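Progress report, Aim 2. The chain analyzed during this reporting quarter is listed below.
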Amino acid sequence: MTDTREMRGMSSGLLIVMFLFGGALGYIVRDLRADAEVKQLAASARRDVEQAAVTAVERAQQVGSALGHGVTATAESTKAALTESTHPRDSATQAKKAPAVAKGR
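Predicted structure tokens for the chain:
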């Protein structure tokens, strides 16, 4: 009888060890899958951030270019206005600017 009890005890012990081993293996596999998913999400987020940065730089360049063109146009317009006001082009402009002369007094 002791042999039967010993066999049952060993079988129970072996079943417990197998159960614990299976559980540990299951947790390891689950953790590896979770790690792979986290790495995939991190890589995806990194790509998204890089794309957003590239888009922001492109937009900043476009704004800078437009601003440069606007400043150039403003400077040319101001220069033309100043040149025109200091050097009248025709006599009509000069007549408008000449002071009125009082008659008969």
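The helical segments are 2-86, 91-97. The first helix runs from residue 2 to 86. These observations will guide the mutagenesis work planned for the next reporting period.
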